[in-house]
Design brief:
The protein has 352 residues and is an alpha+beta fold. Helices cover 68% and strands 10% of the residues.
Length: 352
């Protein structure tokens, strides 16, 4: 109801409703751009694989240049140029869509903040449409959306990593097959290269599965899994990382172990990719009634408020979503960081 009793909206309320409609329009446009980005990403992946196949074929032609018919040489070179051109155009389109998405996300975040402020200050309770907390977009929805974004990221990672490697293995196997009758010595060399490539790909797949869901977390528990993960992380990243465990080492309920492991995994990834740190210290204290996990690095640090707002807006598995997961278990997350002096994140989860 309008507080004046005349059924009309005040200019301020009209402005808020128009802003709300604009916010919803931008959100719809962001959803449409997300679909286009997914489609363009898939097309880029297909063209990348096609380009790799043509490149391998081109190498074969160059290796047997004197025996390949002129028409075949011209066909391969034309196909290579066409594939590279199409890939270049599609990557440009994808970059344009991603740039538009970033601009719209910043605009949507500005609208969201304006609406929150105005609804708190100027709008009666009956007309408020809060955009966070228990309003339009509750915690559960944000977590679900974050999980879906994470699945999309993993799917792209699978396409770019193991799937691409397996495609190359098939091509190498075909080369070996053709060389066995013509040049056995070279076939043996290619077969040795193929064996090495298979070994490397197998290790990548194992690492991918471990990052996705380490089976030893279910079998052996949190502490052995963390020790294995920290050692693997240090080897992969080259970032000196130390793990210290205090308290009584024991199995916890599964949801506690999964949450703590994912928190430490995310924080280590942030320290590696964003903090430019040269040392990371991980501490896990298993108390009788409280579990405390701390990840501290000596990296570049960041503005906590700015990063938390960006993490919530992008709906990725970032600091904001991790904090929500911890709070759902009755825990707390404390972030101590500022630009130029490193970062210390402490997670406390009561056992009960």
């Amino acid at each position: 109801m309008d507080p004046r009793g005349d059924g009309e909206l005040s200019p301020m309320e009209q402005f808020i409703e128009e802003s709300q409609k604009e916010y919803e329009r931008v959100q719809q446009e962001l959803r449409e751009i997300e679909v286009l980005i997914q489609q363009s990403t898939g097309e880029v992946e297909k063209l990348t694989r096609r380009n790799a196949q043509i490149t391998n074929r081109l190498r074969q032609v160059e290796a047997t240049f004197d025996t390949v018919p002129r028409e075949d040489i011209q066909e391969v070179y034309t196909a290579a140029q066409d594939a590279q051109k199409r890939l270049f155009i599609m990557r440009g389109q994808l970059e344009k869509l991603q740039s538009d998405q970033q601009h719209l996300q910043r605009y949507a975040e500005l609208l969201r903040r304006v609406l929150e402020l105005l609804s708190e200050v100027s709008v009666p309770q009956g007309r408020r449409r809060m955009l966070s907390g228990d309003g339009e977009e509750p915690t559960a929805v944000r977590i679900i959306e974050a999980q879906e974004h994470e699945r999309q990221r993993l799917a792209r990672q699978m396409h770019d990593g193991p799937a691409q490697s397996l495609t190359n293995l098939i091509l190498q196997a075909e080369i070996c097959e053709r060389l066995f009758d013509k040049d056995p010595d070279r076939a043996r060399v290619e077969l040795a290269n193929l064996k090495q490539a298979v070994t490397t790909t197998f290790q990548k797949v194992r690492d991918f599965i471990f990052d996705l869901r380490p089976m030893m977390l279910d079998d052996l528990g949190l502490v052995p899994t963390l020790k294995r993960y920290v050692a693997s992380f240090q080897e992969k990243s080259g970032l000196p990382t130390n793990l210290a465990v205090t308290g009584k080492e024991r199995r916890l309920e599964q949801h506690y172990e999964v949450t703590i492991f994912r928190v430490i995994q995310e924080l280590l990834t942030n320290a590696w990719r964003h903090a430019h740190a040269s040392n990371v210290q991980v501490t896990l204290d298993l108390g009788e009634e409280l579990v405390r996990a701390t990840v501290e690095d000596n990296g570049s640090g960041f503005d906590v408020n700015e990063v938390m707002a960006a993490s919530a807006q992008q709906k990725t598995i970032g600091l904001a979503t991790l904090r929500e997961r911890v709070e759902m278990l009755g825990g707390e997350v404390h972030i101590d960081s500022s630009i130029g002096r490193g970062t210390k994140v402490t997670v406390e989860i009561p056992l009960g």
